Amino acid sequence: MNIFENINALVGYGLSCGLINEEDSVYTRNRIMEVLKIDDFPAEYICDSVPETKVSELEKILSEVLDYAADKKLMSDNGIVSRDLFDTKIMSCLVARPSEVQAQFKNLYAKNPKLATDWYYKFSQDTDYIRRYRICKDLKWKTKTDYGDIDITINLSKPEKDPKAIAAARNAVQSGYPACLLCKENEGYAGRINHAARQTHRIIPIELAGTKWGFQYSPYVYYNEHCIVFSYEHTPMKISSHTFECLFDFIKLFPHYTVGSNADLPVVGGSILTHNHFQGGNYEFAMARASVEYKFSVAGFEDVTCGILQWPMSVIRLSFTDTQKIIELSSVILEKWRSYTDEGAFVFAQTDGEPHNTITPIARKRGDLYEMDLVLRNNITTKENPWGVFHPHENLHHIKKENIGLIEVMGLAVLPARLKSEIAELKEAILCKKDISSVESIAKHAQWVSEFIPKYENVSETNIDDILKKEIGLVFAKVLEDAGVFKRTSEGLAAFKKFTDSLSR
Description:
Blueprint: H1 3-17, H2 25-35, H3 58-71, H4 80-91, H5 98-111, H6 113-126, H7 132-135, E1 139-145, E2 148-154, H8 163-171, E3 204-208, E4 211-217, E5 227-231, H9 241-253, E6 258-260, E7 277-281, H10 286-289, E8 292-296, E9 305-309, E10 315-320, H11 323-338, E11 350-351, E12 354-355, E13 357-366, E14 369-378, H12 406-409, E15 412-415, H13 418-431, H14 446-452, H15 464-483, H16 490-502
Helix pairs in contact: 1-2, 1-3, 5-6, 9-11
């Protein structure tokens, strides 16, 4: 298609997705022309009824428009970052103002919360804020483990910056606006070489525990309706009683969702500690399906059901009909854990004045009951484990060495994009019986492969993919075990019980 056909196709896409109405067609065409610096539109391409454009066609249309923009020198370069900035500007011509989006959400919410989130999620995809065509490239599978079926994702949807973009970002003038990628000021922001464009981004304001928050979806959805809930104030992550109140207030607004918070300390706290936020979605994580293997009660809270989960990390589950009781008990557990030391289990509340203990909390509603999962975290490091004692140990770094944040805690591995090519190389090397240790790009996997290959009587073209997926999943289970404070042993369970017993004292 030529550029005029592509402009018509974009208008047709907006109409077919419901982003614009028929009355908006000419206006939208003119806005796109302005972005592309086109002053004239040939009469033969002006039609009374713009043909419908399917969702599946959007990637190709945008690619052709971006090629046109590159040819006309409308972008600083033709790298992926510049193209993303420019196509977001184009798509913004199809997106309603924040007040209109909020009004539509509010109208649907009055009928049914799920109806509202269904619409908002589709809207976030239709605007290309969530790039469907990239998300579908992520590699995903499930692996059966001792803890149930856990989710594995190799993230390919977040594009790698090209060398030119990296260099440009390094040399770019640093701006304090927006303060970070989670701030409300991102809504409609054009972006720059070192900050993603958010012109198609729309936020739903909500109130949690008497404070103002924003509700949005992640542009890199790792699971169904992966949402982010962020404070309207740019304040650091902090786990407190207020956190628990906010989590349950969110669940009351959206009872079909799960929501949780990353911890508030480095090493165990996920990727963004500078802005208080939660993550949730309409998805049942493996941890939610984990059973309680040991029940206990806490003095003064005998009516709240408490238990230790059968899960690789150290998780206490609280369950009751009254959220206030759960909030109060969660606060007791948090306060106790922050000051708890058990040298025999290598748990130290602090060393040299640096605090180590915190909690990753997750809230949900199950039938008439509310649940709070409290994952005990500790970020102590040693000379032997500089990345963290309760962090993936070095022998697992060939698969995962990044922080174990909220999503991983719940049983969904977000693994680096490098693994896609490394798996392909491993597959070939194993089938050809190559010396993996001699291949520089995959040598780090040699020890691992030598350990699992003998488990299989026959390794062939027909089963190698399944074997590699299974073994990667089993490594992730070990990653979670490493991150668990109280280990999955009789000694570890005894140490965990020692802590739960202390809650009544």
